[in-house]
Structures
1.
Amino acid sequence: MKIGVLAVQGAVAEHIQMLSRLNTEAIPIRLPSELDGLDAVVIPGGESTTIGKLLSDYKLMEPIRELADQGFPIFGTCAGMILLAKRVADSSLEPLGVMDIEVKRNAFGRQVDSFETDLAIPVLGDGTFHGIFIRAPMVEKAESGVEILCQLYNNAVAVKQGKILACAFHPELTDDLRFHRYFLDLVTGDALAESNC
Amino acid sequence: MDTGTWKVKAGLAQMLKGGVIMDVVTPEQAKIAEEAGACAVMALERVPADIRAAGGVARMADPTVITAIMKAVSIPVMAKCRIGHFVEAQVLEALGVDFIDESEVLTPADESHHIWKHDFKVPFVCGCRDLGEALRRIAEGAAMIRTKGEAGTGNIVEAVRHMRAVHDSIRKLQGMPVDELTAEAKALGAPLELVMEIHKTGELPVVNFAAGGVATPADAALMMQLGADGVFVGSGVFKSSNPEAMAKAIVRATTHYQDPAIIAEVSKALGAAMPGLDIKTIPPEELLAIRGW
């Protein structure tokens, strides 16, 4: 299995490290030709406007949309979740629009309001998952095909639609591999993850 | 729910990696920077080239300017306070800026001590010329480091010197036997704990950007190839003849820093880069990089 981590801007190395700890090959992706031969793509945290502009400039938007239409697995964290959304509230940002959600950027406030908290995420099993929220977005609306995996204050902060997975926090900044393992299970079509579709 | 933790402070710096942080003095400039793809802006009253030309005491920017810039863009906004001026830092935190740069570009307020940055919820970035200086700042609570270079010169030579110095020292620490680390920590003027950590990991515990002298897309890519996690551009954008084009080109060269064909393409027809200064023509007492202890 080979996973591409979009590397136009943001915390790329952190995702590559998490995936290599799960014995999975992960490579940085900056150009459309580099998407060939991948089994899945990760869109990391970073600055969503920067990543969005660079995806457009270097013609990565359409190929990723086409892959998503074919059921290709994609995992986005924070800025990655914003880019996966159909709509971004109060923003001129043009997202990929491959997930039926509307997100709000900086939904919890500016950096002084960034926080850590323990989350309940039933699909990852018992016990909490440590959520690190940095100028984080939240899901304001999710259409019927979207499964909500985790909520915080009645707002969705982790969602799944088909093989597309997104969260508002940063599993890649923790030592907890469960979220990435859950994504890899989606990629391989593992029964446990599929049963939650 | 915990705010202002080390994880969320150092984590924001991690999210800025691979990006360009641009100095801006008006909301209009901030919008140009955001439109070009900057991952953050530094709100200032004057860019370093103008601070250098004006002389006198350079202080924290007027809160009106900072607030107007915060309203104009949705990307993170940084602002500078003077070295050791913890009340300017308190004011910037109260304004809600996303990152504070305790910066040698402003006139120092304390010639012995830096701010104890652990006391703040907002993260700090600090300048360094070598590994010892970087580790002293991290010990004080800096969540991000930038090599200083020589701001406002459009001359990359000092930025290269400082980045190479940091990486040379890291390589040296990695190869040292453990019983020599105490003496090396003493020589560096750095806490042993951090020296031990780098001996093990071979990397700084926080993100390290390059700053001070970046004036072209090739300058930005040079610093990235030398191991910078990202780039600050001070006067280089808005002192060039075509700021929109220069800003875009530097952002693209930073992303594609390993691809000379793309760097060549984005470097075409940018107009004149900012006027450069030979460091040797600057009187030693006017050098900014020597500020910091």
2.
Amino acid sequence: MSLPTLDFSLILPELVVLITALLVLIADLLWPRAASRGREQAPAVLALAGLILAGLLTLLAGEWSGATLQGMLVADALARYLNLVVLLAAALGLLLSWSYLPHFSTQRSEYYALYLLAVAGMLFLGKSIELITLFVSLEILSIALYVLTGFHRGQLAGGEAALKYFLLGAFSSGFLLYGAALFYAATGATRLADIAAQNAGGFYMLAGLALFLVGLGFKLAVAPFHMWAPDAYQGAPTPVTAFMSVGTKAAALVALFRVVQAAGSVPVGVWATALAFLSLLTMTLGNLAALRQSSLKRMLAYSSIAHAGYLLVGVVAGTAAGFDAVLFYLFAYAFMNIGAFAIASLLERPGFYAVQDAGIHAADGLFGRRPWLAVAMAMFMLSLAGIPPLAGFFGKLYLFAAAVESGWAWLAVAGVLNSVISAYYYLRVVVGMFMAEPSASAHLRLPLPASATLAVALTALGTLLFGLLATPWFQGISR
Amino acid sequence: MLNYSWLILLFPAAGAVINAFWGRRLGRRGVAVVANLAVLAALIMALIMAAGVRSLPAAAHGRYELTLWQWIGVGDLQVDLALLIDPLSVVMALVVTGVGFIIHLYAATYMKLDDEHHPLDARRYARFFVYLNFFILMMLTLVLANNFLQLYVGWEGVGLASYLLIGFWFHKPSAAEAGKKAFIVNRIGDFGLALAIMWLFFLFGKSAGSLGFHDLFAQLETLSAQNSPALVGITLLLLLAATGKSAQIPLFVWLPDAMEGPSPVSALIHAATMVTAGVYMIARTHPLYEMTPASMTAVAWIGGLTALLAASIALVQTDLKRILAYSTISQLGYMFLGVGVGAYAAGIFHLTTHAFYKALLFLAAGSVMHALHGELNIDRMGGLRAKLPRTYAQFLIGAAALAGLPLLAGFWSKDEILYITYQKNMPLYIIGLFTAFLTAFYSFRAVFRAFHGAPRDHHLHDHAAEQPAGMTRPLWVLAAGALFAGLIGIPAAVGGLFGVEHSHLLEAWLHPVFANVQTPHLPAWWELGLLGASSLIALAGLGLAYARYVRQAGWALRLQRLFSPVQPLLEHKYWIDEIYMAAIVTPLRRLARFFYTFGDQTVIEGAVNGLGRVTAGAGVAVARLQSGVVGLYALSLLLGAVGLLGFFLLFG
């Protein structure tokens, strides 16, 4: 019997995040009254430091390669990009939480510990190449997010959303686990590489992949498994929504990519066609529903469902270019979507967070009061709608180009048509900000905390730079 | 040194952004300082670039391309955001920033009052300078572009700035209308440019792999025949674009109305810089035109006819700024004539001298307008010479340069165009020479009617007062340009008289750009003879104006009576606006109404409403599904799972 290979250097960023999560909890135990002595932001500082350290470790690690922990985790280029996306989204969401949290809760350390655990779950999910590890990672991130969704204690909408998310999440986990069991039944292996090597065909593999798609599709909020998303996104604290709408999608997409690769014996035509229809359904449903929303946050929730549909297009393409496009889109999406949620969080009235959430007209006349915010929001909206020269445009361009190249022209056309529909509800916000008169009391007391302002500035900069410098970035990802 | 050329774009951009966001806090003084410094910095950068181009090694052919970053890379097409720095673009950048800076200086004082001579509030004052700096940024983007797409960005950008500034007094219906007219007429031209770019991409894009000027021009060698139909099509579309932006037949109708904008705008955008973009573009794309003599002829004829048409209309106009507007159209016609006969350097030379004297004339007209509280009708002026001595001197210098009086700026540049036209196209030479006569006449008609003689409106006259130094002083710089800018282009024949070799500095400077273009030459004495003819023509125009408007000589009045039958024709500008209205606008409106009532209301709205009803119904259905009941959500999940499983098992 050989000793298991335990190369911890390959999972250093994940370990840093985990340890930080524990430190945040311990610190709270050791210095329970830190808050009263003006150190209420200590957990946030610690958490942010952990995320930044993890990000730096990912960046400085150079070219990762190789599996570790007995072939359960792999550190490769894909995982590296996922790390960067998730850590970026987490750091931006954390900046939003900084000023948001004090308005509804005093339990900072729990919040940040759970937040970091969700991050760790996502990072591990991106590195999982083994069915059980994959499932456990998924559960770590899910359970942490269930709790975070309901963190508005004493407020009905949050609790209800968390409960729904949890019940349906448990239901969908069942499907995923069943899919894993069927894979094992077909091949007798749990490592994705072994499953691929077996090249087994037949009923078990087909059914297993179908059930896997259900489980991962749920996390991605792909229709018809998306029903939880609008409620959860609306009920959760806005920083959590911003973070999970990007992070969960990114991690689940990487897992989906790895699983589809492993199930190589299932004909491409079958899973790709199935995903193509799911993608079409998802973007159409998301966009149509977003048209009719009266709450800004709920509109963004549906928009985020539509974007899951666009992202699937890259997976459907099935080529390297397709997944490169997905990775590029994830970066672009992290900036523009978190930016939009950041503005939404600022527009919510202080003291009434989520109780009185920002209506669709909350941004009306913003340009007159806070011109920079309005310009940033306009950039996020235009980028989400896919208008050049912003990041979202190039993201869609690469996704749809990859689809066309691999013969999915109709899906690309559907995506473009969907973008046109989406322009309506995104532009409505822009028109309101620049053309409409604000209601008498709106924005008068609009708080502009430094941390959230920084988040808006960073996301706006990212949205712009990823657009203007799209080609070099994309080439960087492709390499 | 040239590596830092991108700063020339950064400065005006920064000026616009600073004033847009902090303009109100900076106050009027701060806004003016920021805007002026931004353009001054750009001007200094342009001078540094000129020095840089000078010191380029010979192998570079005077050309330096600075790629800022790769902008679009899709498939085989690569479009960079890159600057093309060569003698031509540097000349344009110098004109834009140099004249632009003087006009900014002037505007800092001029714009303190609004169109009704009330103080302009700080917010709108800031907005004006944001637009003006934005215009400089876009104009520089246009002239420094190294590819067609970037040129298009600048082209649209200056159009936007022009629209915003024409309609700056948007509470005046005429100003709002004029802005709209300019924008719509320009759309037609811009459409031509877009089509031309697409066609070029279709022809050469694959093989060139970019839309860069020199990458595309390098592909021209693959075309052996002259006048290949595709290339003629492309060059004619480019010409259409140029006639829109540079106000030539048939799209010149927007420029006279554009005078609704504040005077500095008329000077900067609608005289000195933006309207010359068409000339610049044709000069820039001259390798295409050299391959298509047919298109060259079209350019030359459009230029010559526009020059004549606009000059004849200018003869009878009574609004001072409109006279200048028509004279701008006419002078732009000369530039088109120049590039149309292959005298590219001469066209750019005229563009440069014109920028000086026409900006001077417009700003001096602005001073008159302020002094008379908005009055621009020369029939109500007269005798302003004593009241506004400095403005008079400045306007006189500008008018003399425009009239082409010997040795002034306009004389040298216009004559060079005529000299080459003489050798290439005799009918157009005669038209050009006749137009020169008309030009001298209407220039001095304006001078004499406005500044000489007895005041015709004593109330206006008594209240007129010279403008503050902030407005009159910058004009002396332009006046110096109107007097002496011609010295950069003394023809070799004249230089030879004084034993100076290479006296035509501008031609030598531009030589690397137009090296492959042959310009014909006549013996020196012949050229001197033509110069003499031009001088006599200009002096004859001046003399006739003097006889008619100052001496009121009987023969001149009789001459005028002789031409009185054509006067209504000229006063109504050949009824071109009315013809366009009847032939194009009204039918289009009818067509639009048809489409609206039948197409839109019946077909599309029916479809959209139907779709809307379906969508609304779907929305209601979705909303009903999204009832918040967990059981239903789980059911949806389950049904989805069953469907997916079924699909896999059925097709797998």
3.
Amino acid sequence: MEKILVGLKRVVDYNVRVRVKSDGSGVETDGVKMSINPFDEIALEEALQMKERGDASEVIVISIGTPDAQQQLRTGLAMGADRAILILADGKPDTLSCVRALLEIINRESPGLVMLGKQAIDDDNNQTGQMLAALWDRPQATSASNIELNGDTARVTREVDAGLEIVDVDLPAVITTDLRLNEPRYVKLPDIMKAKKKPLDEIGLGDLGIEPGAALSEGPFEPPAERQKGIMVEDVQGLVSALKERGLV
Amino acid sequence: MAKILIIAEHDGQTLNAGTAKTVACAATIEGAEIDVAVFAENSAQVAAEAATLESVSRVIAIDNEANKNPQAATLAPQVVALADGYSHIFGPSSTFGKDLLPRVAALLGVNQVSDIMSVEGERTFRRPIYAGNAIVTVEAPAGTVVVATVRAASYNAVGGGNAASIESASLEVALPSHTRFVEVQSGVSDRPDLQTAATVVAGGRAVGSVEGFDLINALADKLGAGVGASRAAVDAGYVANDLQVGQTGKIIAPELYIAIGISGAIQHVTGIKDAGTIVAINKDEEAPIFEVADIGLVADLFAVVPELTDAL
């Protein structure tokens, strides 16, 4: 195939322990490390491996958000993507508007495959890929842990509650990635330098003809309920007694 | 008045427990009238089971050969064809529901509400974000259908004993052939299902090997428990992916959860927060799992797990 389009979302880094603001207006993101959503990084790694095997000729990374998302796109370019597209949007556009914007880009670029992470680790929605496939009227294979390209089709192994489900999808298709698909590569310094010269095009959400629609309203935000402090036991005997006291064994 | 359509999850023979929990969630919406849709190749058995669920008014059975091992791409247009007149469309937040409901939402032109943990109003819900580090209240815009998945661990299944009417429906919808089921590979296990077991014994990276999991399995068998694992243990190949508990695996709420050699990363803890009692066994006394454990034991798992199995 000619092109693979990979979505990269800028999110609070995996290792940050997120805290809710005391006024309940959101979560604290000031001064917090931001990264590529880890599932999206896996999507990019898979696309790069496809290109390296000769299954694709170009990998395009795309993000939607404020100009800050340039950082994550530059990281994607340093990993090996050929070019980047940033759809500029104020605040936090709703998922459906993001999907409509992605579809506009798909109509312009005609990728043979669109790869996204199965969920973003901030909102944990797990919906963008499915919604995009619906509006594009193409197949979806979510939570992929293995992808085999066979010409005009792909055989995808999906991680499901019952184990592993294998599906065949016609291309083009949307595939969303699970954790065990691959291990993303580390970015090397010379690649960071090279990435600065790669094209990164910006376009406004409005320029794509997208008017953000009726989003879910969000708030207040609250911290999760705390569990009560527990007890420590010294040995197996103590553990068995504690379990018996609670009527659990 | 809320008129709610719930998409049943099943394996062709029996309902998945998540369906009765989704009904429980829907029933907390004031004045809810609840229908359950069963899409199957031959729905009779599953539809009959769904009709026994408390709070269900009607079961709609949609028999179609294409609904054997259904894919989201073939189910979604059928759900949309049924959607007229419903104010809400719900499904369990399982891999089945997560695959299907967003596709339905997009076709209906709305955003999905993911992982409802409580109902605050007809269109207002609380849901976890950031691996459960924050809970946000969301409200769907007025005048739009609410398409949502329900976090099963937040609800107790509704009881049986009902006798709702069962109606069959045939839907005139063109179904795509671009997505084809090949097979499901499932580990064969006699143990209770991880998502419904009253007790779950789970192992982490420190279990160290496939053989090390024999200790976990032996304890689980002694307790009649299901077996779970942390992401690290699954990544290391000690057990299959379907045993993973956490943000991106299964969210469970057993009465007793025994975490063995699991450090307790937030991504794991979010999957067990609703457990009745959490027991942690770990040789690192600084392990974050002890912050959420009701009973903690700092010890080498290889020494104490066999001892515990014998003592029970």
4.
Amino acid sequence: MPRPLPRLPEPDSEPFWRATKNHELKYQQCNDCNTVVFYPRQHCTHCGSPNLSWKTSAGLGTVYTYSIVRQNRSPFFRDLVPYVLAYVDLDEGFRIMTNVVGTPRVEDVKCGMRVKVQWEDYEEVALPLFAPA
Amino acid sequence: MAYSTQRRDVAIVGIKEYPLRVVRPGTTANHIRIESARAALEEAGLTWQDVDGFYDAQGGGLGGPEYFGLKPNTIDTTSVGGSSFEFHAAHAVQAIREGKCRVALLTYGSTAHTDGRAIGTGGFGGFAGPATMGQNMTAPWGGATAANYALVKTRHMFQYGSKPEQFAEISVATRAHAMRNPEAVQAMKDLGYENIRELSIEDVLESRMIADPLHLLECCMVSDGGGAVVIASAEVARNTRKKPVWIIGTGQATKYRENAGDITVSAGAQSAPQAFGEAGIRPDEIDNAQMYGSFTITQLVCLEDLGFCKKGEGGDFVSGGRLRWDTPLKPAMGTDGSGYSSNHPGMHGIFLLLEATRQLRGESTSQVANARLAVAHGNGGDLGSTHSGSTIILARD
């Protein structure tokens, strides 16, 4: 059973996912009020403006919080346990849900840990995961 | 000082909690709703056709009235997760005050246990229906429900230094209440709980991790069940059989993942000031707080966000058995046994209204002495991402 992947076309998140194929982590910023917008959509969440620009993150951030998932009955994740679910705060000011990988033990993940994006390639997209920087 | 518009013109006049947590073969979710509605109306001394307000958290705005056989003037299908029933109570107050209806019926039924649904450890990991931005941005990383709540607990412990044994206090206090509630004890037997007895803090901490830092005994059960609540105007309430339990304050909010947002603050921080302001009372006047019993972290942050203690001090607040029914310190919490040890068929919110009402009538199996003021606070959805909160403040005469 493969990992569940984003389904395209989907108008709001499609530009984000298309860019992942080139290992680019994209986010949006409002041209009118400078608010960083994430998750992707077609309006500014602060002022409602439709004038957004796509930007590319350097892929560096900090673990805001995490959980070590020990039990999940869903296919794929049932076999992946234990794995680390996390929110990572990117340095550009947006927060992404992700998995933290690449620590010696899953218990080594901590809040505040510096991490860097790492890509897992699939046919249509690449999945952003994060590993210790 | 909060501006109070407190009125006592809408009351809960009839309640029923469906007694079983594992239904007999052939029982549907609708059967649970019908049986609960019948009993709640009968308790109030009202008839089936007295109902003119229909509240449905399960999407049955069209088919619901037909199945029940009702012709309501007010139909409300607000569906915001397990707190929907507190939203419905708030909306019923508005409808009754405006004269749009006189007798509002809230019902819930679920056969989640019998259906084998994995509420805490399933969900969120796959796709259903058309592609959405929300699913595309969350599903690939396997955020099972329990793990979503665990994200909040991890951050709370990191940010405020709250300790595992403090969260365990919540499981211990609510289990002590469950052991005094025969329906909860039966529920645990029917659901195959091992060693059905009062818990120690060590018991909780030694139970296995579901999603670190949440232990098994910090997670709600997956039961069958349901119930009904009848809310009516003061005019109707004057002639009902039980003493009315007045709804004196309501508040509603949603909250979600935000860039740079504080995940330890729930929607309750927005809904509670509305409710307490309307009621014109302070949290420290509340005798019993029926908080949404999905996971210990939910109840801890909701106690903080409703103002029972300062933000981040929930761990200290719940320590020393403070939440038990028989301590002199207010408030008691989860006096029916809560979602861990009494009832959680997927949506827990209706049971908060039921237990708060029992407390103010003097009918709880863990009755707080001379209870006068209660709060029922629902938290629906996923605490670590998109969720809803609704605060209902209740008073007896």
